[in-house]
Amino acid sequence: MRKDTMDKLFLSIKSKYGGVEHWHVIGICLLLYDLVAMSGSYLFALWIRFDCRYTAIPKELLYACLKFLPIYLIISVIVFWFMHLYQSVWRFVSFSELKRVIASSIITTMVHTVGITALFKRMPISYYFIGAGLQFALVLFVRFAYRFVLLEKSKRNRVAKSALASRVMLIGAGSAGQMILRDLHAAKEVNDRVCCIIDDNANRWGRFIDGIPIVGGRETILLNVEKYKIEKIFLAIPSATAEQRRDILDICKETKCELKNLPGMFQFFNGEVTMREMKDVAIEDLLGREPVQVNMEEIYNFIAGKVILVTGGGGSIGSELCRQIAKHHPKQLIVFDIYENNAHAIGLELKDKYPELNLEVLIGSVRDSRRINQVFSKYKPEVVYHAAAHKHVPLMEDSPCEAIKNNAVGTYKTAYAAMMNGCKRFVLVSTDKAVNPTNIMGASKRLCEMIIQSFDRKIREGRSHELLPLHVHMEDADGSMREMTASVERPQTDFVAVRFGNVLGSNGSVIPRFKEQIAKGGPVTVTHPDIIRYFMTIPEAASLVLQAGTYANGGEIFVLDMGAPVKIDTLARNLIRLSGLTPDVDIPISYTGLRPGEKLYEEKLMSEEGMRTTPNHLIHIGCPIPFDEDAFLDQLQMLMEAAYDGRESEMRGLVASVVPTYYPAGEHGSEYKGKAYEEQMKVVEENKGATF
Predict the structure, then answer these.
(1) Torsion sign, CA atoms 411, 414, 420, 421
(2) Residues in contact with 652: Cβ distance below 8 Å, sequence separation at least 6, in sequence order
(3) Which contacts of 628-633 are long-range, i.e. CB under 8 A and separated by 24 or more positions?
(4) Residue pLDDT, tens place only, 32-61
């Protein structure tokens, strides 16, 4: 029956009886067809048995067949109904439906053989076999014919649009690759055509999947891209390690093809391998290392049921900390930020995703003594993640007083409020720029580390009373910390710092900047051809900060292992290639020179600090460099007064007198390399193939 006829029949029945769905009509038509097919199969078998001569059929056999058929048809329809042969979606018929047709045919054949023999008459042997065979063929044919017609129609449509379709190379002939191929063939809205498949398993070479040839291993990618005029490459190997994926992508990015990647095994295990799950290849896919794994149970046990405060909670790291903390059922999560737009955005996101979360979004500055005291006094946070900071190196070079006021003084005021209000743990989010800093931002973060080490030492030695409040305006007693009284007799706060490098995709990082420049047609600006940095994704950095907080005993500087350093020049060139363009041809690269205070490299540790391990091999502990805490706290008061007085011309010299590892650009130049530079550059050269 033609589809338009079926649709008209369906509409007429629906208008008459109401509530009848299209599949009901299909089921009724199949039932009527089965009645005719089953009756005809056994009558036809009897006719064949007697040489295709109706007059030669003995009357007793014909009558036995005709009398038993009504009983048989009723039983058969009941069997078919219970085997769901009238409720299946035959557009997607598969092996499961074939098994049910076979089972139904076996059952009905046994019913017919036993029933007609016992109730009426024993029939010729050929009658049973021919009748059963014909019935099975007819019942199966009509159901699979619909799928066959649709497949042929789909194939004709693919051929018709192939001239306009993008030519695709599929990498991976395993289960995931087959699912992607099947989804491409079935998807009407996707205008892509797979022309060849790459797989490293030599046993598959020269064979076909759904008519598509498997042409060779990864070493033939460039050859076959040219041979088949490939425009897109889809990588569908979810089981591949990060290193294996990186090696394949290193070859693919030498082409001008658009690259897409199936992220990992999660989609494969959950049966979600479709074109919708294919993502554009991101720069982190080329890092060549496995994603950082953390012990989520440790984090859960530490955070669950506690009041958590995240300062700078609207920033890149702060907001990700909030997302991950929200997953672990805190008693209350407090987001504290001075920038209302970011705070509002993360607040809405968390409320939508975790409606049961006890969330407070507060606006304020860590430099405001009155506000920070008010927050700690009211909410009594047990754990603080201090991510609030000015972080842009060039901006802080132009405004050194602001770097000291926000980063150093803000950290002191937040730490002091935490100590006075019984906070159990204070985790400072630091940076590798605090190591042998050549810029005021890095020096201010080193001051932050020294502040939390001073707090920890004083508390451990029972001298917390010597930690005096910082205040600027003597006449504003209510707005300073002087009137604050401790809510605990003996503070027990553990103060620690977590240090890591650049974060991919964070606000102000090079990746978004490079993408903007590529979208505009270039040039892509790199400060220096040899500049190197450590990189980590935002979720990785946040999860490691959380886990480092669970290991704290007080006074530690935790250092996150970020793998091998990466050349920014190489990163820029790879981003251009991932965009399907050629560096220095389609998109020029311009070297602008190091910015004020910028180093060619960043160190994770000062050479004097050494290393200790933790249960997580990616988190290390630097042994603190000893310094005179009393003298340092006096110097910090001096720095604060100079910062609030706006003595910018003196600020670098004053900071250098407090931070002995600080080498201002004016003294050593922006290209100061430090003791570890040659070793770092050697690592970069040795890992050229392993970094990008």
Answers:
(1) negative
(2) 400, 440, 664, 666
(3) 629/453, 629/454, 629/457, 629/458, 630/466, 632/450, 632/454, 632/658, 633/454, 633/466, 633/467, 633/468
(4) 888 888 888 888 888 888 877 777 778 888
The domain that holds 259 is classified in CATH as: 3.40.50.720
204 and 316 inside one domain: no
| Residue 238 and residue 347 in one domain | no
- 275 within a domain of the structure (yes/no): yes
Residues 661 and 559 in one domain: yes
Residue 650: half-sphere exposure toward Cβ, Cα within 13 Å: 12
Torsion of CA 480, 485, 486, 487, to 10 degrees: -120
**How do residues 327-362 score in pLDDT, each as one tens digit?**
889 999 999 999 999 999 999 999 999 999 999 999
Q: Are 634 and 685 within one domain?
A: yes
Residue recorded with tokens 């707090």: 455
Per the structure block, which two tokens stand in for 457? 């030492």
DSSP 8-state code for residue 92 = G
Question: Which of helix, strand or coil describes residue 564?
Answer: coil
Peptide bond into 523 cis (omega under 30): yes
State the pLDDT at residue 620: 81
Are residues 72 and 26 located together in one domain of the fold? yes
- Mapped onto helix, strand or coil, the DSSP state of residue 474 is coil
Indicate the residue among 124, 157, 190 that finishes a domain. Answer: 157
* Integer Cα distance of 326 and 18 in angstroms: 49
Q: What is the distance between the alpha carbons of residues 310 and 389, in angstroms, rounded to a whole number?
A: 12
Place of tokens 């091998």: 564
Same-domain pairing of 178 and 192? yes
**Residues 192, 139: Cα–Cα separation, whole Å:** 36
Prior bond to 213 cis, omega within 30?
Answer: no
For 381: left if phi > 0, alpha if psi spans -120 to 50, otherwise beta; the answer is beta
State how far the alpha carbon of 380 is from the alpha carbons of 3, 239, 318, 383, 424, in Å: 70, 46, 19, 9, 10
Pairing verdict, β 208-209 and 192-198: unpaired
Instruction: Judge residue 551's burial from the number of C-beta atoms within 10 Å of its C-beta, 0-12 exposed, 13-18 middle, 19 or more buried.
Output: middle
Residue 420 lies in a domain: yes
Say how many C-beta atoms besides its own lie within 10 A of residue 107's C-beta. 16
**DSSP summary character for residue 587:** B
Assigned domain for 477 exists: yes
Assess contact for 411 and 467: CB atoms under 8 A.
no
Measured CA to CA, the distance from residue 62 to residue 679 in angstroms comes to 98
What is the domain range of residue 172? 163-281
Burial class (CB in 10 A: 0-12, 13-18, 19+), 41: buried
Q: Which of 44, 36, 120, 119 has its CA nearest to residue 76?
A: 36
Of 433 and 447, which is predicted with more confidence? Answer: 447
Domain end, chosen from 129, 157, 185, is at 157
Q: How confident is the model at residue 463 (pLDDT cuts 50, 70, 90)?
A: confident
Mean pLDDT of 259-269: 54
| Position 61 in a domain | yes
Overall number of domains in the chain: 3
State how far the Cα of 620 lies from the Cα of 484, in Å rounded to an integer: 36
In this structure, the number of other CB atoms found within 10 A of the CB of residue 1 comes to 9
d(CA 629, CA 632) in angstroms, rounded, equals 5
CA distance 251 to 219: 8
Please indicate, yes or no, whether residues 512 and 498 belong to a single structural domain of this protein. yes
**Among 427, 401, 542, which Cα is nearest to 495's?**
427
Tokens matching residue 112: 């017919």
* Judgement on whether residues 50 and 179 belong to the same structural domain of the protein: no
